[in-house]
Structures are given as C-alpha cells and as structure tokens.
Design a protein that fits this description.
Blueprint lengths: L2 H9 L3 H13 L4 H21 L5 H18 L13 E6 L7 H12 L3 E4 L6 H11 L3 E5 L6 H13 L5 E5 L5 H7 L3 E2 L3 H13 L1
Parallel strand pairs: 1-2, 1-3, 3-4, 4-5
Helix pairs in contact: 1-2, 1-3, 2-4, 3-4, 5-9, 6-7
The structure holds CO-5-methoxybenzimidazolylcobamide (B1M).
Length: 208
C-alpha cells in the first residue's frame, strides 16, 4: 500500500479505488501532505501531460478530476487547523471563462480549515459577481483562481473592478499559469503557487 496506488487509481479514473486507497492511507497514518501531493496532485499533473501529448482527451480529464475530487473530500477534515471564531471573510472563485475548480476547492478547504469564513462562488465567475458578493459579505479578501492562459485577463478585469469600486478588499490570485510577475503587473495584492501558501498569504495580508 502506498500513495502510488492512489496515483494509479486516479489515472485509471477509478473513483471507488481512489476512495478506498485514500481512506486506507489516512487510517495508516500517512502524512496528509504526502497523500495530497504524491497521490492526488501528481496524478493530475500526469493527466495534464498526457493531454498535452494527445494521449488523453477532455472526457478522460473530467473522469480523472471526478476521481481526484473523491479523494480530496476525504482529506477535507484533515486539512483543518482548528475551529473557533472566524479569522476573516474570503470570497473565492474561478474567474470568468474558466471551469477548472479542483485547485480552487483545495484553496477554499484550506482557508476554511484555517478558520476563515469562505464564500465560494464556484466557476466562471464574472467581475461583477466578485465585487457584489465581497461588498455584501464585507469580505477581507477576494481570491481568484485561473488554470487557463486565456482566462488570466479575467483576473486583471476583476482586480481593476475591485479598485474602481473603491473597496478596501484585498485581491489574491493563483493557478497553474499564474505568476508573481503577473500579480504585480495587474496590481493584485498577492500571489501564491499553492493552497497552503494562499492561506499563509491571507494571514499575512490581514495583519499588515
Ligand atoms: Co483542463 N487544461 N481544459 N480540464 N486541465 C489544463 C489546465 C491544461 C494545462 C492541460 C494541458 O494542456 N496540459 C490546459 C491549459 C493550457 C493553458 O491554458 N496553459 C487545459 C485545457 C487546454 C483545457 C480545455 C481548453 C480543453 C479543451 O476543451 N480543449 C478545457 C477548458 C474548459 C474551461 O475551463 N473553459 C479544459 C477542461 C478541463 C476539464 C473540465 C475536463 C477538467 C477540469 C475539471 C474540474 O476542475 N472540475 C480539466 C483538468 C482536470 C485539467 C488538468 C489535467 C488538471 C487540473 C487540476 O485539477 N489539477 C490540467 C493540467 C494540469 O494542471 N496539470 C488542465 C490539480 C489541482 C490541485 O491543481 O488547479 O493547478 P491546480 O491548483 C493548484 C495550484 O495551481 C494552486 O493551488 C493548487 C495546489 O495547491 N492554485 C491556487 C489554484 N488556484 C489557486 C488560487 C490561489 C492560490 C493558489 O489563490 C487565490
């Protein structure tokens, strides 16, 4: 038994085995980070490489995503740092035109686990919805995810809309094609390469 079994089950689009193997690793006391990174996330990276190579197509990517989500749900309670009073409100979503939600869901889970109140707007979210919801919820942070180079401009328009609305709400961005340089270029308040980093970033922004 190892995280390699989880990796293989995601690549076989075998949701039942992903669930069983993930639970088995949790029960065996395997580090949650290792289950997540070596089992689930690395399998999705492999799926992406096979897609780029023309060996897999969109329906297979979708089945792999379903299998990964099943494993992620089991990890959710273990990603929590502890409960208590809300540390702040974070409105999160995948930007307009983009339907990828696994990374965004992971960031949302970790934010919740760290004690933030998270309002998840889902995928394909336009600037107006981010601004309106952040105002309604008195959000401290708007967190934007994008997985496509073609949807990165939606991040720019959302950051611009937040500034034009004169809101104090901070904006953070992340997702595979996104970089610190892009965050600087569009005037976002922060960038993180991964979900734990996004939590750390929000904590830093809220004390600054
Ligand atoms: Co798509 N897809 N996809 N896809 N897909 C990618 C992103 C791609 C890199 C694959 C490839 O070509 N190698 C490529 C993008 C190329 C590019 O633009 N550079 C691609 C493409 C081209 C497409 C379509 C256009 C394919 C088509 O239709 N011809 C299409 C677009 C649809 C759309 O969005 N409009 C499409 C569709 C899909 C599916 C729907 C089938 C499915 C998504 C299902 C779902 O999410 N519910 C899918 C999948 C599964 C992938 C790959 C294989 C896996 C993505 C994933 O979930 N990774 C992906 C290849 C890859 O990324 N290796 C690919 C696991 C997840 C945990 O990682 O989301 O990166 P990730 O999140 C990370 C970090 O990025 C970060 O934290 C997480 C780790 O801790 N992070 C943040 C994410 N958001 C953050 C926000 C933050 C901070 C950190 O702060 C706010």
């Amino acid at each position: 038994m190892s995280t390699q079994d989880i990796f293989s089950a995601v690549l076989a689009f075998d949701e039942a085995t992903v669930t069983a193997k993930t639970q088995a690793e949790i029960d065996a006391g395997t580090a949650i980070d290792s289950i997540l990174n070596d089992g689930l996330i690395s399998a999705m990276d492999e799926v992406g490489e096979r897609f780029s190579a023309g060996e897999l197509f969109v329906p297979e990517m979708l089945m792999a995503a379903q299998a990964m989500k099943a494993g992620l749900e089991l990890l959710k309670p273990h990603l929590a740092e502890g409960q208590g009073q809300s540390k702040g409100v974070v409105v999160i979503g995948t930007v307009k035109g983009d339907l990828h939600d696994i990374g965004k869901n992971l960031v949302a889970m970790m934010m919740e686990g760290a004690g933030f109140e998270v309002v998840d707007l889902g995928v394909d979210v336009d600037s107006e919805a981010f601004v309106r919801t952040a105002a309604e919820k008195k959000a401290d942070v708007i967190a934007l995810s994008a997985l496509l180079t073609t949807t990165m401009p939606s991040m720019e328009s959302t950051v611009k809309a937040v500034k034009e609305a004169g809101m104090a709400t901070r904006t953070i961005i992340g997702g595979a094609p996104v970089t610190q340089a892009f965050a600087d270029q569009i005037g976002a308040d922060g960038y993180s390469a991964d979900a734990p980093g996004a939590v750390k970033l929000v904590k830093e922004l809220l004390v600054a």
